[in-house]
Amino acid sequence: MHVSKTVPGTVHDFKLWKDSQEIPSEKIPIETHVLGDSGYQGIEKIHKNSEIPKKKPKGGKLRNCY
Length: 66
Fold this sequence. Notes:
two-stranded parallel ribbon
C-alpha cells in the first residue's frame, strides 16, 4: 500500500510513488511480490517481482496468475 500527501492537480500514481522514494528499488525487498493497478505501469522496470493486471483480450480468455 502506498499512501502519500495530497497534491494539487492530476498526478500519476506511479510518479507520486517514485518521487516519494529516495532510491525506489531499495525501498521494497525483492522477495516482496508487488501487485499494482494500471496507475503503476512501469514498476516492473524498477521492481522485477511486480505485476500489473491486464484486461481480458476481446474474444479471449482470462489466464490464471497463480
